[in-house]
């Protein structure tokens, strides 16, 4: 694990930036004020204090740094959490308990298969950005060039560099898409990372994958026994994916999930 483990505590932070990604999805950049630093690992979440009786959970979607973090919020439910964040702007204060959760990447050489719906992409963006930052686990597309330039370093890292990541992301409409260019660019840059997005309700101009994301996992993946599955998003996808994987004799301990709703 990159970051040291930290016990959850109450934080105050300030919103540095609020970016509208789609009609209902917002990306918040938050700086810790007090305490000024937070160490968490990718996959963990914060529990935002909406009022003394109400909290809502949001998973960090950024590469962990001690002084700030990012969250992505779908406000379409329009409950108290959605309304709270819709009303928040740059410079506003927020309070949260953090770090929370244990949805973390295992430290082993199994292929990691990430399956997300909607804002369930959050932990996987954090994990992938962190792996890129560590620059040891993903195989850059220019590996041949690197091998020639620096034989020694590449061979030292060879074993770790064989780890692979596939990210499958399910959304409904074209207008739900965001971060696709960023994730596609990473997939082009790193051979060890593959990215697939599927729309369940695409318009006629959509030429990409369609239908439930779970079907694409089952079609595209080759080696289920040597893979580990990480599922995040809505309960329908998580339940469906888990039961299909169990039927294919994937061990339960190789299927990890984080249920958003
Ligand atoms: C560990 C954890 C991490 C989470 N991380 C995120 C995150 O990173 N980003 C994020 O947007 N949400 C995340 N959620 C969901 C979030 O905590 C809230 O449930 C969500 O924002 C709705 O809150 P609300 O008060 O607006 O609506 P509520 O009044 O709490 O919910 C209204 C209804 O909407 C349903 N619902 C909740 N979320 C959605 C959704 N996205 N689409 C459709 N229906 C929904 C609820 O099941 C409920 O029936 C996470 C939840 C958990 C448990």
Can you put this structure into words, describing what you see?
With 261 residues, the protein is an alpha/beta fold. The chain has helices at residues 80-86, 122-134, 143-149, 151-161, 180-189, 213-220, 235-247; strands spanning 9-20, 25-34, 45-51, 54-59, 68-74, 93-100, 111-117, 165-171, 193-199, 209-210, 227-233, 255-259. The protein contains seven helices and twelve strands. Strand 3 and strand 4 form a beta hairpin. Helix 3 crosses helix 4. The longest helix is centred in the middle third of the chain and has 13 residues, at 122-134. Bound molecules: flavin-adenine dinucleotide. Residues 45, 56-59, 71-74, 76-77, 79-82, 101, 118-119, 122, 258, 260-261 line the site of flavin-adenine dinucleotide.
* Total strand segments: 12
Describe the main β-sheet briefly.
6 strands, antiparallel
Helix content estimate = 25-40%
- Poorly predicted runs: 150-161
Number of helical stretches of at least 4 residues? 7
Secondary-structure element series: EEEEEHEEHHHEHEEHEHE
Going by CATH, the homologous superfamily of the largest domain would be: Nucleotide-binding domain of ferredoxin-NADP reductase (FNR) module
Beta-strand share of residues: 25-35%
Bound molecules: flavin-adenine dinucleotide
For this structure, the CATH topology of the largest domain is Rossmann fold
**Sheet with the most strands: spatial strand order:** 4-3-6-1-2-5
């Amino acid at each position: 694990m990159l970051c040291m483990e930290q016990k959850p505590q109450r934080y105050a932070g300030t919103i540095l930036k609020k970016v509208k990604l789609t009609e209902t999805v917002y990306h918040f950049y938050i700086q810790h004020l007090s305490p000024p630093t937070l160490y968490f690992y990718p996959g963990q979440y914060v529990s935002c204090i909406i009022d003394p009786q109400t909290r809502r959970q949001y998973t960090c979607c950024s590469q962990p740094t001690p002084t700030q973090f990012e969250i992505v919020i779908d406000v379409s439910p329009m409950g108290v959490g959605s309304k709270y964040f819709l009303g928040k702007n740059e410079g506003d204060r927020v309070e949260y308990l953090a770090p929370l959760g244990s949805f973390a990447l295992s430290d082993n050489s199994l292929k990691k298969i990430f399956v997300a719906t909607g804002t369930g992409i959050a932990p996987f963006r954090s994990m992938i950005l962190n792996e890129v930052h560590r620059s040891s686990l993903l195989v850059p597309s220019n590996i041949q060039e690197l091998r020639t330039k620096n034989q020694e370093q590449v061979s030292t890292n060879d074993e770790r560099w064989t780890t692979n990541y596939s990210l499958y992301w399910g959304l409904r409409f074209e207008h739900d898409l965001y971060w696709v260019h960023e994730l596609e660019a990473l997939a082009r840059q790193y051979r060890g990372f593959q990215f697939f997005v599927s729309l369940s309700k695409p318009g006629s101009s959509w030429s990409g994958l369609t239908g439930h994301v779970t079907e694409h996992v089952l079609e595209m993946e080759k080696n289920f026994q040597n893979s580990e599955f990480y599922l995040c998003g809505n309960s329908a996808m998580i339940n469906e994916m888990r039961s299909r994987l169990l039927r294919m004799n994937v061990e339960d301990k190789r299927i990890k999930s984080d249920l958003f709703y």
